[in-house]
Amino acid sequence: MTFSLVDPPVLSRNTVLRDEPLRLDTDRQKSGWSSAQVVVVDDKGGTPVSWEAAPAARFREGDAAGWDAAAGSGATLRTRPAVELAPAPPAEAVLLGEAEGVAYWAMRGRPDLVAGDDPSEWADLRAVGAELDALGAGLLTGAVAALNWHERAQFCARDGSPTRPHNAGWARLCEAAGHEEYPRTDPAVICLVHDGADRVLLARQPIWPPGRYSVLAGFVEAGESLEACVAREIHEEVGVDVSEVTYLGSQAWPFPRSLMLGFHALADPEQPLRPADGEIEEARWITRDELRAAMEGGDRAAAPEPGGRPVLLPGRVSIARSMLESWAVAG
């Protein structure tokens, strides 16, 4: 069988114009600062949001899975007028792009208790990404990715000398020799393995909460194609051979700087599963009906066998959830 993503992964939604000429036009940046808005992100990745309704579950800081997305009815990213933060674009600010004539920037910051900020209203991208509209999700994803990179690129990779922000935050300039450094992205594959009919392969890592399962993923190695990485990672993690590797879509995952490239592939469910020691605690095939039940039951459902094990799916902020939902309705 073949299928495609029903909806774009939530962190791939980006509606701002982010063309390079905007980053080079300092006059435009300065003249637009008076009407610009700033996405303020603290050092833990939190930013202020407004909830349309109280979420049923907030992200739990320190959750090993990192996928407990808030289940509210929607959230709005709260930006700050740029002129409240500085009279002109600071060197450390990152120009995220423009939307409807408004320039959006990103800066590090923290709740200002004196100004009346409520720290409990700050949420990170994992918690709130799926609840934001396309503009908010795109802005926060770009802000987190760019600011994370700046903190890890303080020194030139070629000669070790200090670097400084350049091109409205989309490059860093080596102070010794003028080398330019650009934001790094680490490609990772994520693959939904199915039998071509009614079963999908899920696995869980030892550090995840009980019952948490997802599809398989891994980083692309130097000199390796994406398709070869899919085949290698699936075989290394669960001992299964795959075929007909097919691209689905992609999503930024800036924790700190990954790009998730989604695929689906065929495998034989009769081939023995061999979970990799230390990496995969358990792997199992489930049916499409079991997957649908997990989604309908608030992401948790029991397998049909006596004493069945629960299935807790990845949150909506992950591309894994988009892939599973799309496969679930394809049959």
TrEMBL record:
This protein's cofactor list reads: Zn(2+); Mg(2+)
The protein's annotated catalytic reaction(s) are: a 5'-end NAD(+)-phospho-ribonucleoside in mRNA + H2O = a 5'-end phospho-adenosine-phospho-ribonucleoside in mRNA + beta-nicotinamide D-ribonucleotide + 2 H(+)
Q: Which CDD domains match?
A: NUDIX_NADH_pyrophosphatase_Nudt13
Q: Does the keyword Magnesium apply?
A: yes
Return the broad EC class. Answer: hydrolase
Say which domain of life the source belongs to: Bacteria
Pfam families reported for this sequence: NUDIX (PF00293), Zn_ribbon_NUD (PF09297)
Name the InterPro entries on file: NAD-cap_RNA_hydrolase_NudC, NudC-like_C, NUDIX_hydrolase-like_dom_sf, NUDIX_hydrolase_CS, NUDIX_hydrolase_dom, Znr_NADH_PPase
Q: What EC number is given for this enzyme?
A: 3.6.1.22
Establish whether keyword Hydrolase is in the entry.
yes
Q: Which UniProt keywords apply?
A: Hydrolase, Magnesium, Metal-binding, NAD
Boundaries of each Nudix hydrolase domain copy? 183-308
Q: Which family does the similarity line name? A: Belongs to the Nudix hydrolase family. NudC subfamily.
* PANTHER family noted in UniProt: NAD-CAPPED RNA HYDROLASE NUDT12, NUDIX HYDROLASE, NUDC SUBFAMILY
Q: What is this protein called?
A: NAD(+) diphosphatase
Give the source lineage, highest ranks first. Bacteria, Bacillati, Actinomycetota, Actinomycetes, Pseudonocardiales
Which gene underlies this protein?
nudC
